[in-house]
Amino acid sequence: MIHLTINGLNISVEQGATLLDAARLYGIPIPTICSMEGLSPYGACRLCVVQIGEEKNTKLVSSCTYLAQDGQNVLTDSPRVIRARKMILELMLASCPQSRIIQDLASEHDIYGHRFKQEFEDCFLCGLCVRMCEEQMMAGAIDFKGRGETRSIGTPFNMKSDACRMCGGCIYICPACQLSGSNTDLKKAPLNERSETSLDSV
Amino acid sequence: MIKISSLDEFIDFRHRILSEKEAHYDKPTLVVCGGTGGQASGSNDVIRIIKRHILEHNLQEKIALRITGCHGLCQMDPFILVEPGLQFYPKLKMKDVPQVIEAALGNYTVEKLIYKELDEQKCYECQKDIPFFKGQTRTLLGNNQKLDPIRILDYIEQGGYAALEKVLSNGDPEWIIREVQESGLRGRGGAGFPTGKKWELARNSGNEQKQKYIICNADEGDPGAYMDRSLLEGNPHAIIEGMLIAGIAIGATQGFIYVRSEYPLAIKHALIALRQAQDLGLLGEDILNTGIDFNIEIVRGAGAFVCGEETALIKSIEGFRGEPVQRPPYPIEFGLWQKPTCINNVETLINIPVIINRGAKEYAKVGLPNNTGTKVFSLVGKIKNTGLVEVPLGTKISKVVNDIGGGSIGNTKIKAVQTGGPSGGCIPANMFDLSIDYESLANAGSIMGSGGMIVMDEKTCMVDVARYFMIFLKDESCGKCFTCRKGTQRMYEILDDISAGNGSIEQLDILDELAHVVKDTSMCGLGQTAPNPVLSTLKYFRDEYVEHIKNRRCPAGVCKALITYSINENCTGCLRCLRSCPEGAITGEKKELHRIDASLCIRCGACITVCNFDAIDVE
Known about the structure:
The structure holds 2 protein chains of 2 kinds. Chain A is α+β, with helices and mostly antiparallel strands.
């Protein structure tokens, strides 16, 4: 068993548990978007960052990917963490304003607007669709391509994929294109100013 | 080449080469830089002319030619260095080359062509006295001029593979690690992690497994940095020796050199050197009958700066997309193909034979405690002597910039030095008393990085510098972390706005906040250090930002949207600028004052380049 503290609370978790697992176990809320039970953690959205230790040069790490270790002093609501979460949500609103999940999370953190130029992207590259396709549907038809501004998700060379079984798992899991909060009541976002997504080729 | 099959045989062989060394150096030698920089400056023509002259005049027995890697004073390419007197003839024109050859043969100096400082008459007859070289301690780079990189016998003649012999004769790998630890060597790739400690951890890692790996990181992505290139091009055997010793120390049997594809000459020289080492019997199975196996393979990068990050590099070698992964677990435990892997920078590895040969205590006398040894820097920008500079750690910035670098070019004052490449920060001129060591640079808001040092003067706009580095980083970000990808894009947007004169004061606060969040939340070093140029320029040069925003003015005269070009009374009406303008924005008659139409002018600077009368003003 691993013994550590979260927000001053002494806790124990099993070897192999992440900091996010530990927090969820003890009911400590940490917002996440790209983390999903049943899929491997990726660490793309950075919303789940927590602070380890209180010295000056401590880092913030994504709790979904960071394994719990003995003696860690984890802070999930320190000023640096809160500032980070707010800025991340501001950036998300500036890029994907139509996503209900982002809107909800933003208002939960008192973010109602942003200070950047508005973009309308229908994907913020959380990678849930990639992991869904690979790990749950065992198809692996889509993956990340490119880097930086040209990073996108799609099939190899944007060609129609033989591995894709049209299961719809990627659409089901996508947090950016859902108008309602619940996954079962699914509606896709309107196509206004949609940037080119290679998922169109699927 | 005959393969040597035992350690004793190698010891004999090496000593025989050393004792025959004197016989080789009985005639004068012309040394020419054939490194990438030298070739780009025309050294191939110099070499051609020398060869032709020697053949035409039958001088093969009387004079020798050595083509080497980079010497460091790249500003003076193409040059010829004459041994044994070490006469340095810089910036040669092709017609002057035969004079140099004759002077070498006759053992005299050509005063007209020998090195002089700019605007001075004094001749420097010996390379050692030239201020650029005098101020340095060229432990690593100094060997480049003494050997032909693709001749293993040259390397052995200069004491090469003596460290390997020492290590194999000693037989105790833990002794190697203790020596490296005692030397205080820190990783030269940028992070400065103690190399001895890394090797100890690697040695003790995964004891149940036999397979371990050594990787030499020769990705060198920082724009403007070419230290590793020059070391790999100019002395590949030293790196092979370093890797061999590393492999023996940690128990690895396979090494990789990960070189960026943009270094074809370094790759070529490394491949040739590997083949020679193999043929001689220093690489492969059961090296010199000691039972030790070690092979080195070259893996080429594919153009991604992020692949210099160790976990992304590992992914790249494995054949995956170069995307960093969360650490811990560290590559020392689970690295290449999940096996214990030790990754070291080129410069770190080239220090290893020096440590073994000199002994850790001697090595540690150079530099400062906790910052031992020398470091190679690429000194570029608005400085007289651009090139590679090697100094002990702890040297003051002012010494590097003024004594070695020669100060600024022209009559503009130096404003700042940017260290550490795109991950680094700017250090203003009033802090040039700072010692160059890992801690001092970090405290000042910059980093040592891989050793880039860009000198900036009054005509460099600090907003433009931050913007330039942000363009680079946003394009090179792998894009996995939302904050790094979007953060670098948004920071660039704000910097672009300010540079175009559309910024607001509130944006400076947003920029600061965003920079801190990107620094805090990114997973890998690229994102964590991406805000450094912005944060350090905001800290030390905030007034320039404010000037761009409040008065829509670029004090350095760089940001295109905020400057106008105009012609002053120095103009003689020579028509040169008129002819060079791509937009046809200049009008005027011969011998009459020309005029620039500001609405057509794109501020490309072509007119300034061709004007001989300093008649173009930039406001």
